[in-house]
Amino acid sequence: MKKLRITVEGKSYDVTVQVLEDDEATVSGAGFVSPLPAPPPRASAVTPSAAASAAPAPPPAAPRMPVGQPDAILAPIAGTVQKVFVQPGASLEAQAPVVMLDAMKMDTYIYAPRAMTITEVAVEVGASVQVGDPLVRFTARD
């Protein structure tokens, strides 16, 4: 358990947070090693006054398909490729990890937006990418 003080618009709130899982846990299969997706958040111990005045968090954004490149997953942020979890010919299910990018010392996992077969890996570990650069190309599966 961690105790934190959060200040929102000048008001301070004391909250207690329980760390449920380390983000570096891995599972292997289908010829690659991938990080497990983060578990759904559990209710944290928030003081009633903080819960009443805090606005609900927006739902996570759904993966967007790139405009003009429906057969590619594009980099959503600029960063450095830290891990590539797939190779050409790999068959993936929706939400399977594809690439991990590092931007400003934060790891960002890029997931498959749908079931697919990888046709090309356009990046390698250590490569710098800009927003919109293709990471992989794929053929969609139904």
Name the descriptors.
single chain; 142 residues; mainly beta; OB fold (Dihydrolipoamide Acetyltransferase, E2P); 2 domains; 4-stranded antiparallel β-sheet; 44% strand
* CATH class descriptor name of the largest domain: Mainly Beta
- Largest sheet descriptor: 4 strands, antiparallel
Series of H and E elements: EEEEEHEEEEEEEE
Percent of residues in helical segments? Answer: under 10%
Termini Cα gap: 43 Å
Strand order of the largest sheet: 6-13-11-8
CATH topology grouping of the largest domain: OB fold (Dihydrolipoamide Acetyltransferase, E2P)
Shape: elongated
Secondary structure blueprint with pairings:
Elements: E1 2-8, E2 11-17, E3 26-29, E4 32-35, E5 45-46, H1 48-53, E6 72-74, E7 79-84, E8 91-92, E9 97-103, E10 106-111, E11 116-121, E12 128-129, E13 134-140
Antiparallel strand pairs: 1-2, 2-5, 3-4, 6-13, 7-9, 7-12, 8-11, 9-10, 11-13
